[in-house]
Amino acid sequence: MRVLAAYNIKGGTGKTTTAVNLAYLSAYYGARTLVWDLDPQGAATFYFRIPERRGGGKRHIRGKQDLDSLIRGTDFEMLDLLRASFSYRNLDQTLAATKKPLKRFAQLIQPLASDYDCLIFDCPPGINLVSESIFFASDALLVPTIPTTLSLRCLDLLIEHLERNGPRSLRVFPFFSMVDSRKSLHKNICAAPPVKGARFLKTRIPYASVVEQMGVQRAPLPVFAARTPIDYAYHALWNEIETELDSPARGTGLTPATQRLALEIR
What we know:
Blueprint (H helix, E strand, L loop, with lengths): L1 E5 L8 H14 L4 E5 L5 H5 L9 H5 L9 E3 L5 E4 L8 H6 L7 H6 L8 E5 L6 H9 L2 E6 L3 H17 L5 E6 L7 H8 L22 H4 L3 H4 L4 H17 L10 H10 L1
Helix pairs in contact: 1-11
């Protein structure tokens, strides 16, 4: 099972848009896919037309409720959702009360490896105990980055943190999102990203007003905006990510993080 996290320290960069559209494409191309909506705002849950849970976040993080009972099917074949809860606003405190909190998410998702080919976390912004536990559970971070100074600064902070404290197996895939070709700053930054230690994916997601229609249509972009430039961009992005992730560990059924965890449990 591949485990990906749509993540950025900064808010408003397109994490949920990334998670929803790439999860749809993962399922579209034949992979059994699960989205875990970890944002208390529940935008991914809303887009997939599934009611948000009321409470319950503490129970399954502490292991008192199986994740299977919380998973719901979406309107799309092979695509399921572990829906958000507003109680996730206190998830950092809940996680801190568990044993080995940095390994908690890896433990939680390990039983799902036989049911899904791909799991995508939709993460809230910021960096805390929850995000660090996600780092240790994931194969790769998908980091949508707006080509602006503040977004690049946050990417720098993320890379510096991971170099000091992150798992060595974690890969980081930043890519430019909300690119407005009319802006000289966007064009200049995309041409020569001033970030040390980060190799941007080649695919760029353009700024498009149709993205706002996801909240109206409550569906991924390929469903209602097929054959548009941004639809083609997300297809290209997913294909590029799949190529980058191709590795010997791909077919084992466990991420490197859960492989290490399994050895420790034994």
